[in-house]
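Q: Convert this sequence to structure tokens.
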Amino acid sequence: MATPQLDLKKPAEPAADAKAEVKEEKLSSDALTKYQTASAILGDVLKKFIPTVVEGKSVLDLCNEGDALIVQQASTVYTSKKALIPKGIAFPTSLSLNNVVSHFSPMPSDKDVPVLKDGDVVKVMMGVHIDGYASVHAETLVVGAGEGKKVEGVKADALKAAWEASQVAMRSIKPSTKNFVITDIVQQISKDHACIPVEGMLSCTHSQNVTDGAKRVILNPSPEQRRDHPTETFEEGEVWGVDVLVVTGADGKAKTEESRTTIYKRDPKVNYQLKMQTSRKVFSEVQKKAGAFPFTLRVLEDEKRARMGVQEAVQHALLRPYDVVHTAPGTFVTEFFFTLALLPAGPLLLSPVPVWYSPEKVNSDKVIADEELKGLLGKKLRDDKKKKKKGGDAPTTAQ
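A:
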């Protein structure tokens, strides 16, 4: 089911049934409008951006192009002086290849910036916010596949696993459901596809200026992580950013490559008076340009000064790094990230549907073993009230 196209020249209006069912204490009508506007902008950006992710393109160039598209498209809404509000990048464009899990967004000074090759498995992640209400999205594509050339082998298995796990998870997140239900669903579907979720990856609640809320879902936890991770209950009115990451093989562990880390985020809970003048200047620039959201060092004026300045801020937890992590050599990681609101009529997708993926592009014979979980793939995300009264259409597997 295609996402309805919204007029990007003016703020989006929630659908009538969605507006009526908003829970005021957690998600106001105004907040929902801004989430949907951010989603519409991101959808427009992705339709322009994803077709450019092709063989021969530099990852650095693509990251710059993706960020520029977001800034340009966000500038077209809330333009009157009365409606002037913060808007722009909620997560900087990152392209993580093959066994790199996430957050890869290189700098111009990097000597080994990847150039896309045929067969590369590419995770594209980006986000847009309007007044602090963020729509964040990630999808996976395979370079050179799609136009009459299907994805084969373990890449196909992992791609299908992440897609089906994300679709079933999306339809299973309901008020009163526990977070570990989603953990177990992703684990089981990955196993059915001869894959495994990436260990310890988190999904979090979202709210204004927050994309890393306190309530979380963890993927493939170690025994210690499962013991220490609190059991949470999904509640009506919540917004969630759900990240499904699957890797080929039987080892879900990922290691950090600190030298490649370029994305950071301000921690609003931490206060510390930075000692170095360079650190203070960099931190001031970060606050002006990024506010509450993750940023890449590329947005700062002086790269050398930026790298020096963030060190002290990271040491004292003023800034939190989004580490570049990778799984074992020779493995492939696939990802789908979606933003979802829990409303009385059912979950409401607040991020675009993937541009590149369709089941027809993937040649995998792996299937979900559990009939109940398999049945969720054929269920609509939420009931269409008007069609339901008339008899409606048969459920589809689309979002």
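Residues 1-25, 388-399 have pLDDT under 50 and may be disordered.
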